[in-house]
Amino acid sequence: ILNYDIMARFRRRTCIILLLFILFICSIMMALKTLRPDRAGFGDPFGLGLLPELQQRTVLLESKQNSLNMAQGDTVTRVSNLHSIAVNTMKASMSPVKKLEEELSSPNYNFHIFYYTWYGNPQFDGKYIHWNHPLLPHWDPKIANNYPKGRHNPPEDIGANFYPELGSYSSKDPTVIEAHMKQMRSASTGVIVLSWYPPGMADENGEPTDDLVPVVLDYAHKYNLKVTFHIEPYKDRDDRSMYHNVKYIIDRYGSHPAFYRHKTSTGRLLPMFYVYDSYVTIPEIWANLLTVSGSQSIRNTPYDALFIALLVEERHKHDIHRSGFDGMYTYFATNGFSYGSSHHNWASLKAFCDSNNLMFIPSVGPGYIDTSIRPWNNHNTRNRVNGKYYETAFSAALLVRPEIISITSFNEWHEGTQIEKAVPKRTGQVVYLDYKPHKPNVYLELTLKWSEKYRKEQEQWLM
Fold it and tell me: What main location does UniProt list (predicted)?
């Protein structure tokens, strides 16, 4: 009987303790649920106000009839109509933007992001542009014979390993441009580095895009973003053509409120130009343009600016210095692909730049995969590891305390470096990569997280 009483008391005590423990756990969970989530996490989009995919596509469909009219007639009429549509669209949505301004994090003008406007579709351009990218053959015919040839066939089959939430869009579509500006602003980037060819010129798979610059500038201004130019390696680019093209850009776009000017350590406000594949031109030619004594010198003229060269190999740093450039960037989102894109070399590059009065602008990216257009290039693929690769690149960049960080890229879909929203998609022949288990906006949120972290750390560097 005594043993029975002892066991009964023990059971009652155990039940009471267990009940109290369960109540304690429940109270903890309720308390945690009331906490505000970290807006740099992987939850719902915060304050951005981006249209849901269905609503976005409704707006796109409503614009298509106008776009078909734009595809006809002469170029001047098309550009005028495009600008008119863009202006009307902007006026209609100015009041929501003011509300967004209160909800969004302020733009970080030390975060520069590479942006491409070379995409087209039949509704706006009369045909697909860039989404139907050809499969590029390997330079060794023996290797090339082992891989498929031909072109992609949009809209189901596009030249990318991921699939955009906006579909195979046209860069001329004002609703697409606006959606892009919202995404970039939500990520707290501040400066759009716009891929640019001179009027009438384009890359070998595209069409001229200079006519789009005014529309991009207008929408950027609407979201308090700035625009600078990524000068591509157009045919016969040299000191003379560069002088004329820099003059053209500043004369034509320099008075726009969204045109980016960088405040130097001496207090000057100067335009900035990133120069892709700058190493293709010998230093002596660049020195004609970029040194005070050069025969085509742009220095101390109304067209003076900050010129940022692409560094690929280590020896390029000396060529960049001799050429008269103001700084260097690394562009590629493939850690280990080149000397410049290898994170462990950034400290020595920053030290070289500091000792030679140059800017060092490391380029970070979320990953790299271009096997949709270079099927033989698996060895350069860099897995995103659910965002960890991107965060590792940001961490490496912050370690060298750069004045500016560049991001490769917002929408270079061919090389899989985009942070633009992507969605899961499967067709009969293709299964596209996606951002799961996270949502389509995960890389925008990660960019915001690191923009805020950069701002806080930069405040400490300056103390």
Answer: Golgi
